Amino acid sequence: MPHPRSSLGQQPALPDRLRIRPFVDDDRAGVIALWERVFPDDPPHNAPPRMLDAKLAANDGLLFVAADTDTLLGTAMAGYDGHRGWLYAVAVSPGHRRCGIGTALVRHALDALRSMGCVKVNLQVRATNTAVVGFYESLGFEVEERVSMGMRIG
Ligand SMILES: CC(C)(COP(=O)(O)OP(=O)(O)OC[C@H]1O[C@@H](n2cnc3c(N)ncnc32)[C@H](O)[C@@H]1OP(=O)(O)O)[C@@H](O)C(=O)NCCC(=O)NCCS
Questions:
Q1: Model confidence pTM above 0.90
Q2: Mutate to test the pocket of ligand 1, among 128, 138, 143 (most ligand atoms within 8 A of CB)
Q3: What pLDDT digit, counting tens, does each position of 53-94 carry?
Q4: Is residue 29 part of a domain?
Q5: Range of the domain at 64
Q6: CA distance 11 to 3
Q7: What is the DSSP letter of 148?
Q8: Start-to-end C-alpha separation, the chain
Q9: Which of 135, 143, 148 to mutate to test the pocket of ligand 1 (most atoms within 8 A of CB)?
Q10: Is 63 domain-assigned?
Q11: Which protein residue's CA is at the shortest distance from atom 35 of ligand 1?
Protein backbone atom coordinates (compact mmCIF):
# COMPACT_ATOMS: atom_id res chain seq x y z
CA MET A 1 0.00 0.00 0.00
CA PRO A 2 1.50 3.40 -0.84
CA HIS A 3 2.52 5.69 1.96
CA PRO A 4 -0.23 8.31 2.47
CA ARG A 5 2.16 11.10 1.47
CA SER A 6 2.78 9.55 -1.95
CA SER A 7 -0.91 9.46 -2.83
CA LEU A 8 -0.90 13.27 -2.80
CA GLY A 9 1.96 13.30 -5.23
CA GLN A 10 3.76 15.88 -3.08
CA GLN A 11 6.21 13.83 -1.06
CA PRO A 12 8.42 10.86 -1.85
CA ALA A 13 7.02 7.62 -0.48
CA LEU A 14 8.55 5.65 2.35
CA PRO A 15 10.63 2.87 0.77
CA ASP A 16 8.40 -0.23 0.42
CA ARG A 17 10.73 -2.51 2.31
CA LEU A 18 11.60 -0.04 5.05
CA ARG A 19 11.86 -1.62 8.46
CA ILE A 20 12.54 0.03 11.78
CA ARG A 21 14.30 -2.48 14.01
CA PRO A 22 16.93 -2.75 16.74
CA PHE A 23 20.59 -2.45 15.71
CA VAL A 24 22.37 -5.70 14.85
CA ASP A 25 26.14 -6.17 14.45
CA ASP A 26 25.90 -6.19 10.65
CA ASP A 27 24.65 -2.57 10.83
CA ARG A 28 27.93 -1.34 12.31
CA ALA A 29 29.62 -0.04 9.16
CA GLY A 30 26.42 1.59 7.90
CA VAL A 31 25.72 3.33 11.20
CA ILE A 32 29.27 4.67 11.47
CA ALA A 33 29.22 5.88 7.86
CA LEU A 34 25.86 7.60 8.37
CA TRP A 35 26.92 9.35 11.59
CA GLU A 36 30.21 10.46 10.03
CA ARG A 37 28.27 12.00 7.16
CA VAL A 38 25.41 13.53 9.13
CA PHE A 39 27.31 14.71 12.24
CA PRO A 40 30.68 15.81 10.78
CA ASP A 41 31.24 18.55 13.38
CA ASP A 42 30.70 16.47 16.48
CA PRO A 43 33.47 16.59 19.12
CA PRO A 44 35.95 13.71 19.51
CA HIS A 45 34.04 12.15 22.43
CA ASN A 46 31.18 11.66 19.95
CA ALA A 47 33.37 9.90 17.38
CA PRO A 48 30.96 7.40 15.77
CA PRO A 49 32.84 4.15 16.61
CA ARG A 50 33.25 5.27 20.20
CA MET A 51 29.64 6.42 20.48
CA LEU A 52 28.39 3.16 19.01
CA ASP A 53 30.53 0.96 21.24
CA ALA A 54 29.46 2.89 24.34
CA LYS A 55 25.81 2.48 23.45
CA LEU A 56 26.19 -1.23 22.73
CA ALA A 57 27.96 -1.65 26.08
CA ALA A 58 24.85 -0.28 27.76
CA ASN A 59 23.00 -3.26 26.24
CA ASP A 60 19.60 -1.60 26.59
CA GLY A 61 18.22 -2.41 23.13
CA LEU A 62 17.49 1.26 22.49
CA LEU A 63 19.49 1.84 19.32
CA PHE A 64 17.22 1.57 16.30
CA VAL A 65 17.90 1.62 12.60
CA ALA A 66 15.78 2.21 9.53
CA ALA A 67 16.81 -0.18 6.79
CA ASP A 68 15.58 -0.89 3.27
CA THR A 69 16.57 -4.51 2.66
CA ASP A 70 20.33 -4.20 3.20
CA THR A 71 20.69 -0.41 2.96
CA LEU A 72 20.90 1.50 6.19
CA LEU A 73 18.88 4.72 5.88
CA GLY A 74 18.59 6.10 9.40
CA THR A 75 19.14 5.77 13.12
CA ALA A 76 17.57 6.83 16.40
CA MET A 77 19.19 6.28 19.77
CA ALA A 78 17.08 6.42 22.93
CA GLY A 79 18.02 6.24 26.57
CA TYR A 80 15.99 5.71 29.75
CA ASP A 81 17.32 6.15 33.25
CA GLY A 82 14.08 5.40 35.09
CA HIS A 83 13.16 9.07 35.31
CA ARG A 84 13.38 10.58 31.83
CA GLY A 85 13.78 9.29 28.36
CA TRP A 86 16.24 10.90 25.97
CA LEU A 87 16.66 10.87 22.24
CA TYR A 88 19.99 11.15 20.44
CA ALA A 89 21.50 10.52 17.01
CA VAL A 90 18.28 10.83 15.05
CA ALA A 91 19.67 10.82 11.55
CA VAL A 92 18.39 10.02 8.06
CA SER A 93 20.55 9.56 5.00
CA PRO A 94 20.51 12.86 3.07
CA GLY A 95 19.11 11.26 -0.09
CA HIS A 96 16.11 9.84 1.75
CA ARG A 97 14.81 12.76 3.77
CA ARG A 98 11.29 14.19 3.84
CA CYS A 99 9.59 10.88 3.17
CA GLY A 100 8.76 9.96 6.76
CA ILE A 101 11.77 7.89 7.82
CA GLY A 102 12.75 10.24 10.64
CA THR A 103 9.17 10.27 11.89
CA ALA A 104 8.98 6.47 11.81
CA LEU A 105 12.27 6.18 13.71
CA VAL A 106 11.29 8.62 16.45
CA ARG A 107 7.84 7.07 16.86
CA HIS A 108 9.44 3.64 17.19
CA ALA A 109 11.86 4.94 19.82
CA LEU A 110 9.02 6.66 21.70
CA ASP A 111 7.01 3.41 21.71
CA ALA A 112 10.01 1.58 23.16
CA LEU A 113 10.46 4.21 25.88
CA ARG A 114 6.74 4.18 26.68
CA SER A 115 6.79 0.40 27.03
CA MET A 116 9.53 0.82 29.66
CA GLY A 117 7.33 3.14 31.73
CA CYS A 118 8.83 6.40 30.51
CA VAL A 119 6.41 9.33 30.73
CA LYS A 120 8.58 12.24 29.50
CA VAL A 121 11.17 12.43 26.77
CA ASN A 122 13.77 15.16 26.36
CA LEU A 123 16.19 15.96 23.61
CA GLN A 124 18.71 18.64 22.80
CA VAL A 125 19.17 20.36 19.48
CA ARG A 126 22.08 22.67 18.78
CA ALA A 127 20.93 26.28 18.66
CA THR A 128 22.19 26.50 15.08
CA ASN A 129 20.10 23.48 13.99
CA THR A 130 16.84 25.41 13.67
CA ALA A 131 15.44 23.29 10.80
CA VAL A 132 15.33 20.25 13.04
CA VAL A 133 13.12 22.05 15.56
CA GLY A 134 10.33 21.93 12.95
CA PHE A 135 10.86 18.20 12.57
CA TYR A 136 10.46 17.56 16.30
CA GLU A 137 7.49 19.93 16.54
CA SER A 138 5.78 17.93 13.80
CA LEU A 139 6.06 14.96 16.15
CA GLY A 140 4.53 16.82 19.11
CA PHE A 141 7.66 18.02 20.90
CA GLU A 142 7.63 21.55 22.27
CA VAL A 143 10.47 23.98 22.87
CA GLU A 144 10.72 24.30 26.67
CA GLU A 145 12.20 27.17 28.65
CA ARG A 146 15.22 25.48 30.16
CA VAL A 147 18.91 26.19 30.49
CA SER A 148 20.84 23.22 29.17
CA MET A 149 23.99 22.49 31.17
CA GLY A 150 26.70 19.92 30.75
CA MET A 151 30.17 18.98 31.98
CA ARG A 152 32.78 16.60 30.63
CA ILE A 153 33.75 14.13 33.35
CA GLY A 154 35.84 11.70 31.35
C1 LIG B 1 15.95 15.72 11.19
C2 LIG B 1 15.88 14.52 10.27
C3 LIG B 1 16.17 13.26 11.09
C4 LIG B 1 14.47 14.42 9.68
O5 LIG B 1 14.35 13.20 8.98
P6 LIG B 1 13.28 13.03 7.79
O7 LIG B 1 13.18 11.58 7.49
O8 LIG B 1 13.63 13.93 6.67
O9 LIG B 1 11.95 13.57 8.49
P10 LIG B 1 10.43 13.31 8.03
O11 LIG B 1 10.38 13.03 6.58
O12 LIG B 1 9.85 12.28 8.92
O13 LIG B 1 9.82 14.74 8.35
C14 LIG B 1 8.59 14.87 9.03
C15 LIG B 1 8.23 16.33 9.12
O16 LIG B 1 9.21 17.03 9.90
C17 LIG B 1 9.36 18.35 9.38
N18 LIG B 1 10.73 18.49 8.86
C19 LIG B 1 11.62 17.51 8.55
N20 LIG B 1 12.79 18.03 8.14
C21 LIG B 1 12.63 19.36 8.19
C22 LIG B 1 13.48 20.45 7.87
N23 LIG B 1 14.75 20.27 7.42
N24 LIG B 1 13.00 21.71 8.01
C25 LIG B 1 11.75 21.92 8.45
N26 LIG B 1 10.87 20.91 8.78
C27 LIG B 1 11.32 19.67 8.64
C28 LIG B 1 8.35 18.50 8.25
O29 LIG B 1 7.14 18.96 8.84
C30 LIG B 1 8.19 17.05 7.81
O31 LIG B 1 6.96 16.80 7.16
P32 LIG B 1 6.83 17.13 5.58
O33 LIG B 1 7.99 16.50 4.90
O34 LIG B 1 5.51 16.50 5.25
O35 LIG B 1 6.82 18.62 5.45
C36 LIG B 1 16.89 14.65 9.09
O37 LIG B 1 16.69 15.90 8.46
C38 LIG B 1 18.34 14.57 9.52
O39 LIG B 1 18.92 13.48 9.56
N40 LIG B 1 18.95 15.73 9.85
C41 LIG B 1 20.37 15.77 10.21
C42 LIG B 1 20.61 15.15 11.57
C43 LIG B 1 20.03 15.97 12.70
O44 LIG B 1 20.21 17.18 12.74
N45 LIG B 1 19.34 15.27 13.64
C46 LIG B 1 18.70 15.89 14.78
C47 LIG B 1 19.61 16.14 15.91
S48 LIG B 1 19.90 14.69 16.89
A1: yes
A2: 138
A3: 999 999 999 999 999 988 999 999 999 999 999 999 999 999
A4: yes
A5: 17-138
A6: 9
A7: -
A8: 49
A9: 135
A10: yes
A11: 98
